[in-house]
Recover the amino acids of this structure.
């Protein structure tokens, strides 16, 4: 078995269906020979990490991409930075310079690992042909577990006299292709109790669903959570689509990405419950909308994110899906006779103001203005596409609100492909392509 | 309030009682003015991180130490490397060069952060006087949470025109001194079930207790765990003392650090249960004693350590204390009528062979050989000191087994101060000093 | 004076006429207000470093470019890598995150300095408003002196309470705008003697002119050097254009970039004289054409490059221009009655074989093949454009030889804009644009 | 030939006579088997870099030291930082972790290269047994050339299946042991002219001789330079001993390290000529003694140091020895009839005030005070030891001036072993030991 053939097989064993990158790299040549693994061959590596991000968002699996050595790896940097910022599990492969000439300044020699270090969780070289399985499996494990993120793995063209490229020399046979498991963690039961206590004491709680809630696959648990307690929710761009924006409790995207009445509910909150979000300045409109005096409950997979911005009153570290299960269980046990949230006055008012706001936007978008304003286009696109649609967001001059609810309303069965805080450009086009590739059952816009 | 005075106050708010380092740094000057915080002033910074490690081991709190700029920070490197390897939560402070001359090559200018980066979890500069509380609180949070470890924080002598040293210029008043909480995580309930299943199927299980089990404070849960199921256990040097070595199920220290019959139980195991250990080569005596074909259950706080060495059949990521609680609960529910482990044939045999081995060592140590062999000295020291003793380990030519059970037997109420895989020298003396300082109620050896 | 205004003024004082980058950064806003400094505003930062490289090649001055924070800086990476590989003096500016929120994960926060570190000579932050002049002047000094290369300088939006962006707060007045001088170094006279000795003993010497010979401005000295001794020369892609390829001693581009008879002269050499080249594998066609047994004289600005690939018999560290002056002086003194090189038999033969080869290529390019082969197009372009033309090279499937002499012959008064060993794409278009901008007197292709 | 045996042979080929470090490393085992190379075996690595520094100072050769893996390398950090700060050429070797387990967290695994990166010029791993000669020769070349400094080289215990330790597996035979040459550079002749012009215009010039002047071996050229023009000189601690302090033009150590009348000459200067010094704050007593309005001529081997602190009016980059030769030549040509400097009024006055100051100190040191003050001890030591003595400096509370002239006067034939700006402790003892080892012909104090 060839070295890159072995890598392609281990990639396939993870259930990954596509690798993205330049077509003439060894990984792609071998990937194409395997049933169930397809190489998507690009002319320019720059889009590969964005494609892998979109793939990961749509499937919940890690995304895999590759670059050719030197400038190829350099071209990946903007997209990998975005994935790092957005905590998307990517595994990135590249060949690197021949160890027989390393340090001599040969063609395309550069320090690829250092280039990738500040934008990945792990940036390593396979130093030994026999270590390929260990390194590749570990790459997937690190990308997926804890706070997910990209990892980089390079393999020199020639290690210890063994060519790894050019399909020439063999790797050791590798008995078993293991699938690396995602290992989830729960919250500390004591902290779960404190969290429930905090929620039950709040009069005006509001929930923020971030990217972490979606990447843990907590959609069902989240829906149960907000409905059990009647909790109005906003999403960050990364959390969008966790529950459809037509849901009575949905207040749209938070912070700078408007909705007039969503802002109001946020600002008046006496408890903010953040699930898988970094809560950076956009959320509070650089503190302009900050709910002064509110308590703060933070749920996050990573202790590194706890209190990074605001100081939580209660913080639960754990996988969003499992933590919400824990909270829902405690709530159901403790408050078995909770009323239907649709009966509460707060929610009735909320539904009313939501309806008013939607009507106002409908009217706004009936404009006959020429040139047609972006918001009208987006609004009509939203209505035409409706349910079961995948929305890939682009950045640019219109981004701040025109893509957002209620101009564009994410409806049932829909998925969003966002970019992260770095907001690099290009995801609009790339995301739509991948959406069609991976989920042909859904519409894509 | 002065800048370093503010830092000393935040340190104190964490419940930390000592800071270790050179006496003429600002942190020490201010620490000494605070009730409840004492500066231990050394002539040489090199011992400061080891002292802080010993302090942390004995109290469960983070250790705090400091260095003067330049060579002072450089002198900390060996000890900090040891703490990093041993996952000990340290917060390390140092002043750094004046921003008004940074880059000019002034007295003791060097890149302290880069020096500390490869051996800490976080190596940062306080860039702004107003940010002192954020950085110091975050330093403690990062040191203690997730996989614990050292963090480094430097503050330039002059930030933005404000002197931070020389006791001249004020920091903003800081309203509240928050105590950073340790946030624990539990295991995924599904994985807990799989773990219990694995244990219940094993005929010859053996447990390895590592440093992580002690640093999570899981002593009681561990005792219940082994007694519930009658699980013989070994410890790594870092896990030593979790339960006294006089316990019937205790097999001593694992791997290269002998005990003849302990090795045998390890080698014959059909299940190895590792709790908070990296399972590196010493444990299996570089695989010489490896139990071929055994299943592997790994429990660790960090997904980064999962499968780093062996590939687990089941891996639970979580705090050892909480995970053992979860496992114990499931076992008690599932097997409510489990027999007393002392009644099982396996354990009866084990106790017999343990007794035999102890007798053999007793005889061995009655030698009248001159010069007196190290093992006899250690053996007699062990008997003289007995219970409630703190043992600080040193490295050296005799280290491989003479400090170990049954030459030295860790008895009830005792604590061990180990070094980590780097095995730097000096902990023997330093640990004993700190033991007397922090736990004057215990004997120290 | 505003902070970025001050930077723009210091840039201007270096004689730099253009800054390249995204138009809405502060540097560009202020650059546009200064006579003699023009901001070239792009839609995408990726081209900015390539433009700055082309600018530097054409003017001998450092190139200046900028990126917006986060993904903007990430987009610069491929171009900066190319400049680093090609030893092109660039000064790159970017804003960075507000120190009041650094570490909190705010919008576009990322470690820009670390991203730039592996691909620059110096990657720093301006930590203090008063230090702006020191850092900017130093950036130019480091970029230009020693082995030239790119440097990166970021300035946080807010330093020590002083906003640097948003045109709000003033920098200290800065009395004098100094022009940073390029400081040249000469060779050790003893080594110069040894070099001349080596040359005078050689029967079949051949010269390789690399990028370093052009970037030191050694065109005149080089012409004198080869003519004094009758030395046939090849160039690397980076050294191309140092003397026109119509010169009798010109053998075209070296190594993999053919010319049949050039290869032969190289292969048969008993002395290779390398001036400002890294002599990597392309030159010797991965050693396929290596002149076994030949002596090696290496002239380079940087001791780091000496012996990096082959081991020189004599190595002179120094600026190519000054070293060639030294050598020419010694040769003129030592051999005052040297014959005209055109009279030597070796050179007469060389001219003959050169002519033959050119005729053969002319014939080859008269082909009527459809589709028209690239070589015919290039050949005709070469004849149409002729003298005083700027050639910007692109990479791609045809690059290995079709751009090269004698398909394309660099004639008198012409300049080449190459890429470096990393061979990133895009310079063809970008270089041509900059050529028109900077040298409207020349034709551009 | 074994791998480390090969390394020992290449070390020996450089003319190096000692390697310093822990005795049980492979380098030391093989060094001891070679005639002409001796392993100095220490109990603690910390002193090894200081010994190598002292060796380099006394011999002008690079110093070689080694550490064992992990904590051994960590222990080298303070000394290597000092050598980096003091631009001392050291080559540091260490074994590193087995590539078959790299990344698994095995015994003493840590990132040694990153630990050494911020304090060396080059920190690399030998990735391939066949590359040993390239890497080791390059290490010496980089350490010695350009601005000298330490470099670090690690070799894994097992590379590509070939054991490098344990004396088991062979390296390729290596035909030739080359001695790496120090390659010097001269100044630009144009700048030399400007420098001479500046000197000839000055009325009160003063010279600062730094460490770089000594490390280039410019003692003779320096003496000629000051005597040709009658230039009073001070030294930094690193430049001390370039010419004996009993010389009429000697003003002692500069800056904070007093001599009352030396300070005065410095402060009143209208031209400061710095040769191989960083001119950091100690020199000008943090600018308290700065000669306002003086011109500044800077001579340094590295363009990186030019204008790092003050902005020079003329800067010459080049080896001090060659640059002073160039300057002396121009001066002799241009001013052939220069008077003897001892005849000038300025120098006559200087000699008088020097005598007065020495008398005053003599009187001061006649004190019968109890306890005997350090200065009296030093003074008497100075008189007892006299000429041909090696002085190794220690730091501590008395360091600021008591070791300095005229308390201790460096006399003819004497050498000083200083520490650099980092001023780490220990050189006093270590330096004296090495002095006796390397130069038994001289007295050592």
């Amino acid at each position: 078995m060839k070295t890159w053939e072995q890598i392609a097989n281990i990639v396939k064993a993870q259930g990954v269906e596509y690798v993205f990158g330049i077509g003439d790299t060894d990984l792609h040549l071998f990937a194409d020979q395997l049933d169930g693994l397809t190489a998507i061959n690009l002319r320019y590596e720059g889009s590969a990490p964005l494609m892998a991000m979109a793939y990961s968002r749509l499937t919940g699996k890690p995304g895999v991409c590759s670059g050719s050595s030197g400038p190829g790896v350099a071209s990946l940097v903007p997209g990998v930075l975005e994935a790092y910022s957005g905590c998307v599990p990517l595994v990135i492969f590249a060949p690197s310079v021949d160890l027989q000439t390393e340090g001599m300044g040969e063609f395309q020699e550069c320090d690829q690992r250092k280039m990738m270090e500040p934008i990945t969780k792990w940036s390593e070289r396979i130093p030994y042909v026999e270590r390929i399985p260990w390194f590749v499996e570990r790459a997937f494990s690190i990308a997926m577990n804890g706070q997910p993120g990209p990892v980089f793995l390079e393999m020199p063209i020639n290690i210890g006299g063994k060519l790894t490229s050019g399909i020439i020399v063999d790797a050791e046979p590798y008995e078993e292709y293991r699938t690396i498991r995602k290992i989830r963690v729960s919250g500390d039961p004591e902290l779960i109790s404190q969290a429930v206590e905090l929620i039950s004491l709040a009069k005006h709680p509001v929930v923020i669903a971030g990217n972490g809630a979606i990447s843990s696959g907590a959609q069902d648990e989240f829906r149960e959570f907000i409905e059990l307690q009647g909790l109005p929710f906003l999403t960050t761009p990364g959390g969008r689509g966790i529950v459809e924006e037509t849901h009575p409790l949905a207040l749209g995207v938070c912070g700078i990405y408007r909705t007039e009445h969503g802002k109001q509910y946020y600002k008046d909150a006496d408890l903010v419950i953040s699930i898988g979000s970094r809560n950076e300045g956009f959320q509070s409109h650089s503190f302009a909308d900050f709910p002064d005096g509110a308590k703060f409950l933070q749920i996050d997979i990573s202790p590194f994110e706890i209190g990074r911005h605001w100081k939580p009153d209660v913080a639960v570290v754990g996988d969003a899906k499992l933590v919400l299960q824990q909270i829902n269980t405690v709530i159901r046990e403790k408050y078995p006779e909770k009323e239907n949230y649709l009966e509460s006055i707060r929610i009735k008012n909320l539904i009313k103001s939501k309806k008013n706001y939607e009507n106002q936007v409908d009217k706004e978008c009936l404009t006959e203005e020429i040139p047609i304003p972006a918001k009208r286009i987006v609004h009509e696109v939203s209505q035409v596409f409706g349910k079961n649609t995948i929305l890939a967001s682009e950045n640019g001059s219109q981004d701040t609100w025109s893509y957002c609810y209620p101009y564009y309303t994410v409806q049932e069965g829909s998925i969003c492909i966002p970019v992260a805080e770095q907001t690099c450009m290009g995801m609009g086009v790339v995301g739509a392509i991948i959406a069609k590739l991976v989920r042909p059952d859904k519409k894509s816009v």
